[in-house]
Design goal:
single chain, mainly alpha, Tetracycline Repressor, domain 2, about 65% helix, elongated
Length: about 200
């Protein structure tokens, strides 16, 4: 954040916006209302965010903990892949339950916003996995001719499916993530590096 921005004002606006959206929805929450609830002027708000959608994107990022991702860099490629797929950031469950349905509905009505949100959510794990795939190839753990784009789809696709369709009925994704990494490693690891399946807690 630029030095001219006030961290305190920034936080007040985020908190006020989340409260208002939880109470009234996205469309009914104006920048005027956010300014009134937060005590931060609109002029200051627009120094922090270019427009309402920019503020909404940050709010959604806050709700799912995008700014709190750890480094997946233990030196063990397979274990780090599993950690990326298993990662679930700490979340305020009550706040998320109150506001996320409004954000999802808004995303459905506004394709450009929805696309920006999908890119924001999928890029961090995609970046982590791409780095790990390249590392695995360079270390001789994975086949050198590996198609990176297809590999990313194979690793991330099942997890995205879980988030959209399975999470309400299968709340624990660790078993799925383990099966995805195991299958990928079995298909693409060099034989010399096909170690026994690691024990998972």
């Amino acid at each position: 954040m630029p030095r001219t921005r006030s961290a305190s004002a920034h936080r007040k606006v985020l908190d006020a916006a989340l409260e208002l959206i939880g109470d009234h929805g996205v469309d009914a929450t104006s920048m005027d209302a956010i300014a009134g609830r937060s005590g931060v002027s609109k002029a200051t708000i627009y120094k922090h965010w270019a427009d309402k959608d920019a503020l909404l994107l940050e709010l959604m990022g806050v709700l799912v903990g995008l700014g709190e991702r750890p480094n997946f860099d233990t030196g063990h490629t397979r274990a780090d892949m599993l950690a990326v797929l298993n990662y679930r950031p700490p979340q305020d469950t009550v706040q998320k339950e109150r506001t996320m349905p409004h954000f999802i509905a808004y995303s459905a009505r506004n394709p450009a916003f929805g696309g920006a949100w999908r890119r924001m959510v999928t890029e961090p794990p995609r970046h982590d996995l791409l780095r790990l795939l390249k590392l695995g190839i360079s270390k001789g753990e994975l086949k050198s001719g590996l198609d990176l784009d297809v590999s990313l789809a194979m690793l991330l696709g099942p997890m995205i499916y879980w988030h959209i369709f399975l999470q309400p009925v299968v709340p624990d994704m660790k078993k799925l993530a383990g099966s995805v990494v195991d299958a990928f490693w079995k298909a693409f690891a060099l034989e010399a590096n096909e170690n026994p399946r690691p024990r998972r807690s």
